[in-house]
Amino acid sequence: MAEPVLALDRLNKSFGALHVTRDVCLDIRPGEVHALIGPNGAGKTTLVSQIAGSLKPDSGRIRFAGEDVTRLGVAPRARRGLARVFQISNVVGAFTALENVAVAVLAASGGAFGMGRPALADPALRAKAQDVLDSVGLAGRMAVRAVEFSHGERRALELAMSLVQDPELLLLDEPMAGTGRAEGEKLTRLLLSLKGRIPMLLIEHDMTAVFTLADRVSVLIGGAVAATGEPAVIRSDPVVRKAYIGEDEAV
Ligand SMILES: Nc1ncnc2c1ncn2[C@@H]1O[C@H](COP(=O)(O)OP(=O)(O)OP(=O)(O)O)[C@@H](O)[C@H]1O
User: Fold this and answer.
1) What is the pLDDT of residue 31?
2) What is each CA distance from 88 to 14, 42, 67, 85, in whole angstroms?
3) Which protein residue has the closest C-alpha to ligand 1 atom 16?
4) Which residues, other chains included, contact 69 with Cβ-Cβ below 8 Å and sequence gap of 6+?
5) How many CB atoms are closer than 10 A to CB 15?
6) pLDDT over threshold 70, residue 114
7) Second label for 217, Cα 20 to 30 Å away, from 45, 68, 99, 245?
8) CB distance 20 to ligand 1 below 6 Å
9) Phi and psi, residue 79, nearest 5°
């Protein structure tokens, strides 16, 4: 089997006496959508921050794209193709969707496009920004300022701004948070359209989205991985149902 895109090996992290990440081993295979679920306070955000590089683990290793990145910070990991989406937004409300994506293309190009003149004056840059917006279903909204966007459209725009980097892995931090049912379904369809092309680690409370999108699901309880498996297996795992999903709850 091909080497995983991301492999966590016995990660540990404590805040004082609080042991928040406990011997976590987890991997993401090429093309896989791997969902990470768990009750509030289980340590999901803490784990994602260690993957992204904004938090240093106390022990353990992180391998990404064939390289040990444990000691690297956020920026070098991002340059290697690790894109964290939705928790930190770079969207500028006063800019149109096209302008926002153009800035992201410019930032990702590392000087390949001419600096010092309006980004959108460059036809190649403009074409790339338009293509990416088209791919997230925002072709008809390019000239609209981001401040006028619905929550779901904003999520699609944030995703577009990450896609310009041609990421090796998307870390999706609760994409469905704050979206209504219709918008959540639309966003799920958008992520489905990317599935297979870009591997994803999906942190999400919305179980419909999780079971629609994920190839495998890992369940974090008390900072430790309680189970990893295909959605159908996780859905029926008695430990998971008892500790997290709720025995009586239909999943
Ligand atoms: N910087 C910090 N200092 C001290 N404790 C922290 C810090 N960050 C998180 N914690 C604690 O670590 C535990 C795990 O928090 P974390 O935010 O990772 O959980 P989570 O699974 O993402 O929760 P949620 O689903 O509510 O977002 C919690 O008890 C939290 O209070």
Assistant:
1) 95
2) 23, 21, 25, 7
3) 43
4) 53, 62, 63, 76, 77, 80, 82
5) 10
6) no
7) 68
8) yes
9) -65, -25
Token digits of residue 229: 């498996």
Report the C-alpha gap between 194 and 160 in whole angstroms: 11
Atom of ligand 1 nearest to the CA of 55: 1
Q: Give the per-residue pLDDT at 143.
A: 94
By most ligand atoms within 8 Å of CB, the mutation choice from 15, 58, 205, 244 for ligand 1 is 15
Residue 86 has a pLDDT of 72
Ligand 1 atom closest to the Cα of residue 205 is: 25
Q: How far is the CA of 46 from the centre of ligand 1 (A)?
A: 6
pTM of the model: 0.90
Among 3.40.309.10, 3.40.50.300, 3.90.1150.10, 3.30.30.10, what is the CATH number of 1-81+203-251?
3.40.50.300
pLDDT of 247 strictly over 70: no
Q: Does ligand 1 come within 6 angstroms of the Cβ of 14?
A: no
Q: What is the tens place of the pLDDT at every residue in 184-207?
A: 999 999 999 999 999 999 999 898
Pocket mutation for ligand 1, best pick of 46, 201, 207 (most atoms within 8 Å of C-beta): 46
